[in-house]
Amino acid sequence: MKAAVLEGVKNLVVKEIPTPIPTKDMALVRVKACGICMTDHKAYSGERTNVNFPTICGHEFSGVVEQVGDNVKFFKPYDEIIASPVSNCGICEDCRRGFAQYCKNGAVIGGDGMDTIIDGAFAEYVLVPENSLYQKPKNITFDAAALAEPLAGSYKGMIEYSELRISEDLVIIGAGAMGLLASMIAERAGAASIIMIDIEDWRLEFSKKCGATHLINSQKTDAIKAVYEILPNGPDIVFEAAGPLAAAQLAFDLCRRGTRVNEFGVTTEGTIAISPADVHWKETRVDASFSVYPKVMQSSIRLMEKGFVDPNKIITHKFKLDDIHEAMKTMKTPERVKIIINP
After folding, report:
1. Whether pTM exceeds 0.85
2. What letter does residue 160 receive in the DSSP assignment?
């Protein structure tokens, strides 16, 4: 099969490698679509330092079952599937508490966040454990289906953890793919105001079609002052989906008493200035959210199937596997949101 093998920092080689054979509880999936996440780009650029080369990245994907191992019970060849990158044992204490993303016996397909990483979907075929497979509803495109996992992550952060309620006022920092998916979820969940903060005017304008009601360019204006001109009583939730430490700091600086903060986007090392006394007297509720578990994957698929959220809206570029180098270059351009690889 053809695969994009990351052999070192910025050394991405598209080449023929042996097609894997599914064993036991694994299925061989023919990849139809795979999104590029910043996690993938950081592995390519060297910003991620926990990458063991060679590796195949790509953890946002959909496809068709080609072949199954002897122990696979609920999926068969030709099934159209959505994949979660998270595979868990289902038996350890974390799994049974409902935190499958913490499973110490689990593995992540082509991504990050677990000790065991297996080859991902920047390839024509990928091996997937059966418990990571979900049936794809017929009315969901393969491209949209590939974004079930990031949609599930945004749903988990916004609804399961930050508990957005109807008529609440929301600030989202970062108009990237995750921030835009969060905005679409918030719009359908009944948020009164969705203030989008970013440093790129193009992305801010793009966010209008994803539910944003107000736009703030934090490089051109005082974001805190601008937010409080729109919301004199301050936001109910600040959802940081940008990544830089400055965005994490801004999230806390925007808080009034009782604001709920979700540090959703920052994965880089570093610290910010937070006063425990301010957190105490403001009763700031601080949350964070990474990865997904089965419940939110099912919720994500249902959101798409019922027409509540259409991830196709945020797809701005598509590339063939042979052109993945151009796709990686495009990841650093301002006028892009989600890039899809169609092998």
Report:
1. yes
2. I
